[in-house]
Amino acid sequence: MRKIVMISLALTGAMALSGCEGAMSEVKRAKTGVNVIDESNLNELMLGAADPNEAVSYFSRSVAQDPSRSDLKRGLAKSLIRSGNADAAVKAWEAVMKHDDATSDDRVDYADALIRIGDWKGAEKQLNAVPPTHETYKRYRLEAMIADSNQEWKKADSFYETAAGLTTKPSSVLNNWGYSKLTRGEFKDAEVLFGRAITYDPSLFTAKNNMVLARGAQGKYDLPVVEMTQIERAQLLYTLGLSAVKSGDAVMGKGLIKEAIETHPQHFEAAVRSLRALEDNVTN
């Protein structure tokens, strides 16, 4: 009887241990699931909000710990771009592209990195390998830039127009398109495009400055009616003054530069130096 009781207790203990192990296994699986979710959230956080250099350190450590993970290599490549290290980013994107799960978005990002280091032919080769059905803002913006570099103006215009239609924030691509027109000597079209860019983003000073350059090239020496701070007004007057001087109208240029100096709320050193140089030139 005692043996039966002992056997029964042993079986009960074994069953209890088995149940405990099962429970522990479930806990481990649940914990693993939580870790995956937490890691995914952390990856997104590092990509979007963290300091770029911190993100590079995080993804570098992660890739070293698990070099088979393409998502970690992708995070490293994007972080390197954000940190301004395009050369290292190109190598990181090369590593991403070796994975079977590399996407068309990855190839476009790789092309972007190549453009940043001046490898236009390499970027063009990568974009040519992207399926035509992959129609994204970034893809067409890069296509436009490459067409510009090849002086294929009709293609560039078509790509810029397509890119602008694929985003709700086209100010940057409109500014690029305007600058392309500016370099071609199509100043009136450039002015219109810069104006459109400012409409979408009134804080985009680059577009304001480019617009002034386009107007100056047409002999328009008054500032456009756009939103600007006092400092921006002074800087734009200075740009317009330099444009006038470059066009051969030194008197107009001097007047605009003087106005820029008077408008600026602080000491405008660059404008002061330019005015002195103009006055010395006239004196000599």
TrEMBL record:
Matches recorded under SUPFAM superfamilies: TPR-like
UniProt xrefs under Gene3D superfamilies: Tetratricopeptide repeat domain (1.25.40.10)
Top-rank lineage group of the source organism: Bacteria
Protein name (record): Flp pilus assembly protein TadD, contains TPR repeat
Organism expressing this protein natively: Celeribacter marinus
